């Protein structure tokens, strides 16, 4: 097997007295689509936030694209990562948030061009061209001059996806991208994510409670509980014949979605 694009080795994350990730070992291969499922508070979002460098780790080591994420080499010694190293590493990843996190005072176009201009140093014209490309991909070319508040939740989330893609990351992280949407708006966002999964060579790591959707797009589903992977496998196997009691209990609640 090739070197994984994401590799967690014995990663520990604590918030005060709570251990959220408990010596986690976890890998994702390049191009793989992986979904993390599990009960509330099991540490799913924390995995994504750590990758996006929004939360630091307490112990262990993470590699992304072969390089340490939260550490860097200085004279052959591994030391905590500098802000410069984190900034470089962040370019590998794009993240789509549960609450969209769009800039409310910027137009849709500006939301998408801001980071390519500020972080990657693209010219305005280049960034606008990119924005056009990715807004088209999410079906929102005609909304570029609007502000987020003028859009539906589903449209805002699609802007969030275009914004992340405009940085041309190798890895896309989706943190419960549909859970703050009204039910009738969930489908349009899932359709866009599914198209991305099918047509692009992206590595995708998704946290969701949409079990049926996870089944459709994932090569592998990981069931998390108490900061560890309890069980993992291709969805058609994990869903139908889970080995662990905890996985069975969890999946039972979703069986009526099947
Ligand atoms: N910044 C923080 N400060 C303190 N505790 C936190 C912080 N972020 C997360 N936690 C705690 O860490 C635990 C795991 O949170 P996380 O959001 O990763 O869970 P989750 O599995 O994604 O849950 P959910 O499905 O409800 O989103 C929870 O107990 C949460 O309260």
Automatic annotation (TrEMBL):
An MF annotation (GO) of this entry: ATP binding
Gene3D superfamilies in the record: P-loop containing nucleotide triphosphate hydrolases
A GO cellular-component term linked to this record: plasma membrane
Compartment(s) where it occurs, according to its Swiss-Prot or TrEMBL record: Cell membrane
Domain of life where this protein originates: Bacteria
Membrane topology: Peripheral membrane protein
UniProt xrefs under InterPro entries: AAA+_ATPase (IPR003593), ABC_ATPase_HisP-typ (IPR030679), ABC_transporter-like_ATP-bd (IPR003439), ABC_transporter-like_CS (IPR017871), Ectoine_EhuA (IPR014343), MetN_ABC_transporter-like (IPR050086), P-loop_NTPase (IPR027417)
NCBIfam families from the UniProt entry: ectoine_ehuA (TIGR03005)
Similarity field: Belongs to the ABC transporter superfamily.
Name the UniProt record assigns to this protein: Ectoine/hydroxyectoine ABC transporter ATP-binding protein EhuA
Protein's organism: Pollutimonas nitritireducens
Lineage: Bacteria, Pseudomonadati, Pseudomonadota, Betaproteobacteria, Burkholderiales
């Amino acid at each position: 097997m090739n070197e994984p694009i994401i590799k967690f080795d014995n990663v520990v994350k604590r918030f005060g007295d709570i251990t959220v990730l408990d010596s986690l070992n976890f890998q994702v291969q390049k191009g793989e689509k992986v979904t993390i499922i599990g009960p509330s508070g099991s540490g799913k979002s924390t995995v994504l936030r750590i990758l996006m460098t929004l939360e630091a780790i307490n112990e262990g080591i993470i590699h992304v694209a072969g390089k340490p994420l939260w550490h860097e080499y200085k004279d052959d010694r591994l030391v905590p990562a500098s802000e410069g190293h984190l900034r470089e590493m962040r370019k590998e990843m794009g993240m789509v948030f549960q609450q969209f996190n769009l800039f409310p005072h910027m137009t849709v176009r500006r939301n998408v061009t801001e980071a390519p201009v500020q972080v990657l140093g693209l010219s305005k014209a280049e960034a606008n061209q990119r924005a056009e490309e990715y807004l088209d991909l999410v079906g929102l070319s005609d909304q570029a001059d609007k502000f987020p508040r003028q859009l539906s939740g589903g449209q805002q989330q699609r802007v969030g996806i275009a914004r992340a893609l405009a940085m041309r990351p190798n890895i896309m992280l989706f943190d419960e991208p549909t859970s703050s949407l009204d039910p009738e708006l969930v489908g349009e966002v899932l359709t866009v994510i599914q198209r991305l999964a099918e047509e692009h060579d992206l590595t995708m790591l998704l946290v969701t409670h949409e079990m049926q959707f996870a089944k459709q797009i994932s090569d592998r589903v990981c069931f998390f509980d108490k900061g560890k992977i309890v069980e993992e496998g291709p969805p058609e196997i994990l869903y139908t014949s889970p080995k662990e009691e905890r996985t069975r209990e969890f999946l039972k609640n979703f069986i009526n979605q099947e």
